[in-house]
Amino acid sequence: MREEKNRIRQILRDRKAALTPAERLEKSTRICRHVMERIGVGETVLAYTSKELEVNTTPLIDALLKNRNPVVVPIIQKEDISLRLSYIRNRAVLVPSTFGVPEPIGSEIPAQAGDITTILLPMLGFDRTGARIGYGAGYYDRFLEKNPGMRKLGIAFACQEIERLPVDANDIRMDLIITEDGVVYPARKELQ
Q: 167 pLDDT exceeds 50?
């Protein structure tokens, strides 16, 4: 299964890389709008801080902060393959860190997983069953396994959809998957 997942990861990386910067920006803006429609007032959100080819979470984090939603970001701990959590009050505290991911190094405000209502997850790909494939290290799968109570909202570009992902016992399905086209999982009829 590992070889199959790695083959799929490469296909999905290529799809994302094929998007122009202008397309990524336009699609990210639409995704942000769809996500904000599903975040309640005062809801504490764990939001990943995006790298170049990912859905740009910058406008999303700005919108959450503007709406006075508490925003938590992950700090990658390579030593034990885990995530540490920190509140942020503005994006100015974020600096490129582990894997080039922006993190509030030196400006941490410790957060507890139990305070989080919704987690926004990065992904390389997804399918219509709510399965997600990440980059392969398992940081988010380990975090979600230890902290199952939060709503899991995966965000991705529509081109990252794949017909069927191979899943194993460690893979955790999303509660919602949102692309620039809106909610794609669960299907609209399931939401009613």
A: yes
Other C-beta atoms lying within 10 Å of the C-beta of residue 2: 9
The C-alpha atoms of residue 130 and residue 173 are separated, in whole angstroms, by: 5
- Placement of tokens 């230890």 in the chain: 146
Is residue 192 scored above 80 in pLDDT?
no
pLDDT digits (tens, 9 = 90+) for 21-52: 999 999 999 999 999 999 999 999 999 999 98
**Domains along the chain with CATH numbers:** 2-186 (3.40.50.10420)
Phi and psi of 103, rounded to 5°?
-140, 155
Quick one: pLDDT at residue 80?
94
Separation CA 190–CA 94 (nearest Å): 38
Contact between 87 and 71 (Cβ < 8 Å):
yes
Determine if residue 68 is left, alpha or beta; phi over 0 gives left, psi from -120 to 50 gives alpha, anything else beta: left
Query: In this structure, are residues 123 and 157 in contact, taking their beta carbons and an 8 Å threshold?
Result: no
CA distance 54 to 149: 25
Give pLDDT tens digits for 62-78. 999 999 999 999 999 99
Euclidean distance between CA atoms 64 and 117, whole angstroms: 13
Distance CA 8, CA 136 (A): 11
